[in-house]
Amino acid sequence: MGDAVPAPRLVATDLDGTLLRSDGTVSERTRRALVEIERAGLEVVIVTARPPRWMDELGDLVGEHGIALCGNGAFVYDVRARTVLQENPLEDELVAELVGELRRAVPGVCFAAERRTGPYAEPHYPQTPPPGAAPGQVPVGPIEARDPAPIGKLLARAPDWDPVRFLTVVETVVGSRAHLGYSGAEGLAEITGPGVTKAAALTAWVAVLGVHAEDVWAFGDMPNDLPMLRWAGRSFAVANADARVLAEVDEVCGANDEDGVAGALEGLLARLAPR
After folding, report:
1. Segment 197-209, tens digit of pLDDT
2. Could you give the residue ranges of the DSSP H alpha helices within the chain?
3. Helical axes 163-174 vs 92-105, angle rounded to 10°
4. CA geometry: angle at 250 spanning 244 and 254, to 5°?
5. What are the distances in angstroms from CA 199 to CA 26, 73, 128, 225, 267?
6. How far apart are CA 161 and CA 142, in angstroms?
7. Cβ 35 vs Cβ 64: under 8 Å
8. What is the percent of the chain where pLDDT is above 90?
9. What is the DSSP string of the chain?
10. Closest CA to 10 of 212, 199, 263
11. How confident is the model over 27-60, as pLDDT tens digits?
12. Cis status, amide bond into 130, omega within 30 of 0
């Protein structure tokens, strides 16, 4: 990375597999790099597939603004206030269409949902209740019988199906009616509304700040990061990233377990330091 590459005004980063180590922890080196980047006057924005409730334990990573873009763009979450400020849900009619068609195309498919009010899961959905949700506090039942809270992200699994075949069938059924994301969990289909991606959420957020795509450095590791990485002025993949991501980015930094994002940010800080 040479001086010919313009310095950004904002850093956007995925969490799992990118900023976090494989055990889900944040290294002190990474924490320090994020603090120093913000002290240098740059914004840091977390853009993650995680639902809002999974951000509460990582509130110190969100910077002074306290905002995380969650659910692959479905939620704008104020981590410090533990409040969803904005949601981009799937329309109820579309959910009904997709669930019905997927039940016919994939016998044995089961569903869960992430909503601003919390998760909902079918009885046979793997990991019920979903991680991060306390037993007895998650409504359980057929997805068609859920309460009226809008769905930000619809999750589908088919435990008896080959994961690759399953996702291929889901992609065919969903088509252009919604956005299908893949954040690394094997055999998990993550469905958000049409046009609801990490890139769309980040575009809306930076517009409020007066920041443009060319002012953004983005870091990721999985195909659900690709819309954001394609949009950003400079894209980085960690060395452990999916091959589809490695093939498209501008640069590859160190792996997540080697604090690759921190290393790239330390290089940026060295360029920004007064000489």
Report:
1. 999 999 999 998 8
2. 28-39, 92-105, 163-174, 198-209, 226-231, 243-246, 260-272
3. 140
4. 80
5. 24, 8, 30, 8, 25
6. 20
7. no
8. 80
9. --TTSPPPSEEEE-IIIIIS-TTS---HHHHHHHHHHHHTT-EEEEE-SS-GGGGGGGGGGSTTTTEEEEGGGTEEEETTTTEEEEE-PBPHHHHHHHHHHHHHHSTT-EEEEEETTEEEE-TTSSSSSPTTS-TTSS-BS-GGG--SPPBSEEEEE-TTS-HHHHHHHHHHHHTTSSEEE--S-TT-EEEE-TT-SHHHHHHHHHHHHT--GGGEEEEE-SGGGHHHHHHSSEEEEETTS-HHHHTT-SEEE--GGGTHHHHHHHHHHHHHS--
10. 212
11. 999 999 999 999 999 999 999 999 998 898 887 7
12. no
Over the stretch 100-144, which tens digit does the pLDDT of each residue have?
Answer: 999 999 999 999 999 999 999 999 898 655 555 565 678 899 999
State which amino acid sits at residue 52: P
Give the whole-angstrom CA distance, residue 70 versus residue 114: 10
**CB-based contact 238:221 (threshold 8 Å):** yes
CA 214 to chain centre: 21
Do 66 and 59 touch, CB atoms closer than 8 A? yes
pLDDT at 61: 84
Nearest Cα neighbor of 105 from 191, 165, 153, 177 is 165
Rounded distance between C-alpha atoms, residue 143 and residue 11, angstroms:
37
Q: Encoding tokens for residue 169?
A: 């069938």
Find all residues with CB under 8 Å of 164, minimum gap 6, and list them.
none
Token duo for residue 34: 């994020």
Give the span between the Cα atoms of 3 and 45, in whole angstroms. Answer: 24
pLDDT tens digits along 162-178: 999 999 999 999 999 99
